[in-house]
Amino acid sequence: MIIVLLGPPGTGKGTQAAAVKTRFQVPHISTGDILRRNLAEGTPLGLKAKGYMEAGELVPDGLVLDLVAERLKEPDCSGGFLLVGFPRTSVQAEALDKLLAASASPIDHVVLLEVPDGTVVDRLSGRRVCKSCGAVWHATFNPPPAGMVCPKCSGDIYQRADDSSEAVLNRLQVYARQTGPLIGYYDAKGLIRRVDGSKSPQEVEAAIFASLA
Ligand SMILES: [Zn+2]
Q: Omega into 116 within 30° of 0, i.e. cis?
């Protein structure tokens, strides 16, 4: 089974990806992981990517696709896989379809986690993180200690610049701009499974499994 998991930031994609991976016994393919591994191993594709990154540029679509193509050739992907965070654009989605056409196994489902913008802002702007160990709290749902000192490692607890309300709204706008056409592309193929991502993680997980049945 080949599954793509889509959703804006702050919708718990990581948690749900882990659940899908366990349930369907498919590897979780993340472009971030692939890139990190290629950089660490100094592969030819990794070295190319490094050139762009050192120049402060985005790794171009074509190179990302080459990296994904290499990863999908590995034996653990032969029975299917779960893609998270890729494709991000309809151009990437078309390129991925061409790649999969060569292996005669198309995408089965595109799960779209839907969460209202206001909920995403509440979730992310409330995040408080330990600078040293990365432990996470939430200003409303799981407040950090009053002194803002981490009880585990004594590090400072703070709000990442990325998590300010303005930054979150900006991230949501970028997401909407990029993925609007992507969702349209998959909708036209009848692949979109819409799941309400604003419920509890357990309810979201159950809804995802139901949508894949
Ligand atoms: Zn800490």
A: no
175: domain CATH number is 3.40.50.300
Helix (H/G/I), strand (E/B), else coil: 134: coil
- What is the DSSP pairing of strand 127-130 with strand 28-30? unpaired
Identify whether 64 is part of a domain: no
The end-to-end CA distance of the chain, in Å, is: 11
pLDDT digits (tens, 9 = 90+) for 143-189: 999 999 999 999 999 999 989 999 999 999 988 998 899 999 999 99
For the chain, state the CA radius of gyration.
19
| 126 CA → ligand 1 middle, Å | 17
How remote is the CA of residue 133 from the centroid of ligand 1, in Å? Answer: 4
What predicted TM-score, i.e. pTM, was given to this entire model? 0.86
What is the total count of domains within the chain? 1
Ligand 1 center from residue 144 Cα (angstroms): 11
Give the helix, strand, coil percentages of the chain, each rounded to 5: 50, 15, 30
Q: Which residues are catalytic, by number?
A: 13, 88, 127, 160, 171
> Ligand 1 centroid to 156 CA: how many Å?
7
Q: Which of 45, 50, 84 is nearest to 62 (CA)?
A: 45
Q: In what order do the strands lie in the sheet with 127-130?
A: 136-138, 127-130, 157-158
